[in-house]
Amino acid sequence: MPMPASSAGPLQIKRRADRVVATLTRPEVRNAIDQDTIDRLHELCDELEREPRTLILTGSDGVFASGADIAQLRERRAADARRGINTRAFQRVRGLPMPVIAAIDGYALGGGAELAYAADIRIGTPALQIGNPETGLGIIAAAGATWRLPEIVGEARAAEMLLTGRILDAATAVAWGLVSSLYEPADLLAAAHAIADRIARNDPLATRYTKTALLAPRTAHPEIELELQAKLFESPEKERRMAAFLESRKR
């Protein structure tokens, strides 16, 4: 189904009833994430918090995002760091009610990598290069990498990446579990849509509750699953889907 025309600017957006595709489009700086991009991300999160849909994040021209905009970053001072300019936007992406899929081609570095870490599902291409070289620029990866990356790849591998600035190639990113699968660049967006299609076939409320449980701290388990399951056990959609399943087995 064709998607409505996307908006102009550093984050082009296409919408369907069950999903949104947001494409980073600053090719002149390899899709570096500037303040305007962050503002657009907040606007998109406002929309998806009100109207939950699956989000596909990707980049234009063979690059996901080469990092934060260094020209802007260079001018920021202590007060800017404490505001968490990128951190707050990426937290909202991570906390969106429905799944977020990052479709990564080429570079995903620094803030671009941290935006990808905020996704629930990451897929890539053989050209993928992902990592955090921030210490080489005299700063730290402060928009999520120091706590999300250990959860994704484990403490030892996260420490190696963050302390050395190592950039992973595609094969290593798959082996380390940072991305789940690779596709040729021409097939990447279609692969992301195929994942979104599988999500769309499931009950949206059950999908949302699954993400809620996945994001909950360890101390909230197992009680949070039990409470969410209790709500779903009373859901008309659960009754409908289970009745349809049992009926199909009679055929």
Residue fraction in strands: 5-15%
Low-confidence stretches: none
Mean pLDDT: 94
Give the proportion of residues in helices: 40-55%
Structural class by sheet pairing and helices: alpha/beta
Strand order in space, largest sheet: 1-2-3-4-6-9
Quaternary state of this entry equals single chain
Gyration radius over CA: 19 Å
Q: Whole-Å distance between the termini? A: 31 Å
* SSE arrangement, N to C: EEHEHHHEEHEEHHEHEHHHH
Per DSSP, the total helix count is: 12
Largest sheet: 6 strands, mixed
Which outline best applies?
A: globular
Strands, total number: 9
Organism: Microbacterium psychrotolerans
Pfam family, one: ECH_1
Protein name: Enoyl-CoA hydratase/isomerase family protein
Structural overview:
- The structure is a single chain.
- The protein is α/β, with parallel strands linked by helices.
- Helices cover 49% and strands 15% of the residues.
- It has 12 helices and 9 strands.
- It has a 6-stranded mixed β-sheet with strand order 1-2-3-4-6-9, sandwiched between helices.
- It is globular.
